[in-house]
Amino acid sequence: MTPSAAEVVLFMGPPGAGKGTQAALVAEARSLTKLSTGDMLRSHVKLGTELGRRAQSLMDEGVLVPDDLIIAMVRAELDQMAPVRVLLDGFPRTTGQAEALDALLDEIGAPIGAVIELKVDPDELVRRLVGRARAEGRRDDNEETVRTRMRVYEDQTKPLLDYYRSAGKLKQVDGVGATDEVFERIGEALKAGAA
Ligand code: AMP
Fold first, then answer.
1. pTM, whole model, 2 decimals?
2. Residues 92-129: pLDDT tens digits?
3. Mutational test site, ligand 1, from 11, 22, 35, 41, max ligand atoms within 8 Å of CB
4. Which among 69, 100, 162, 169 is least buried, having the fewest CB atoms inside 10 angstroms?
5. What's the CA-to-centroid distance between 186 and ligand 1, angstroms?
6. What confidence tens digit (pLDDT) does each residue in 56-78 have?
7. Which of helix, strand or coil describes residue 192?
8. Average pLDDT for residues 155-165, to the nearest whole number?
9. Per residue, what are the HEC states of the chain?
10. What are φ and ψ of residue 76, in 5° steps?
11. Where are the domains of the chain?
12. Quick check: is 119 catalytic?
């Protein structure tokens, strides 16, 4: 049975922090729909849609797809949900996206419950991303693009952590360890008050 109350959880963290894996587990455990903007864009690329064509070269370079395209894509999904029970993985990534999300959730009447930041040190991130490149063959996991994606995270996405910290929503979780250990930590963080 789907719970009837709205719930919105955000997952943030640098590329390679394990967001995708943990987001899937947490979404399943809490009966939330996982929306990963990266996965959505990759499926647009695969299907050859107009959005996919516009996004592909930006994704290959490791830079962000323009806010208006991303916001429209997320809005279309949230508009279909009643109640809105969603785990957003990889969105928002810019101040503009965060503000648009606030406005959208305000409209819908579904406030952000928690923002999980998965923390992993940079050396460990590079090791993981190189491993993932071999295992999954993702085109944007080569060394140069990985470096760009990390810089983009530092410059454009990290400032959002302060935004959510000030709002009392940020919960920082150590992302190093076995999958089930990290999952436990996230569960605890979601139970506890904001960091
Ligand atoms: P991810 O799978 O989340 O690492 O995303 C892969 C790529 O998709 C990123 O490097 C960006 O080019 C693009 N992307 C995913 N989510 C967003 C977003 N919220 N805003 C802008 N670009 C995004």
1. 0.91
2. 999 999 999 999 999 999 999 999 999 998 888 877 87
3. 41
4. 162
5. 22
6. 999 999 999 999 999 999 999 99
7. coil
8. 96
9. CCCCCCEEEEEECCCCCCHHHHHHHHHHHCCCEEEEHHHHHHHHHHHCCHHHHHHHHHHHHCCCCCHHHHHHHHHHHHHCCCCCEEEEECCCCCHHHHHHHHHHHHHHCCCEEEEEEEECCHHHHHHHHHHHHHHHCCHHHCHHHHHHHHHHHHHHHCHHHHHHHHCCCEEEEECCCCHHHHHHHHHHHHHCCCC
10. -60, -35
11. 7-120+168-194
12. no
Judge whether 185 counts as a catalytic residue: no
Ligand 1 atom showing the smallest separation from residue 39 Cα: 2
CA of 14 to the centre of ligand 1 (A): 11
Q: How far apart are CA 175 and CA 18, in angstroms?
A: 7
**Ligand 1 atom nearest to CA at 93:** 19
CA 130 to chain centre: 20
Of the options 3.30.300.30, 3.40.50.300, 2.60.120.650, 3.40.109.40, the CATH number for the domain spanning 7-120+168-194: 3.40.50.300
25 Cα–ligand 1 center, Å: 20
Q: How confident is the model at residue 157 (pLDDT cuts 50, 70, 90)?
A: very high
Identify the pLDDT of residue 136. 74
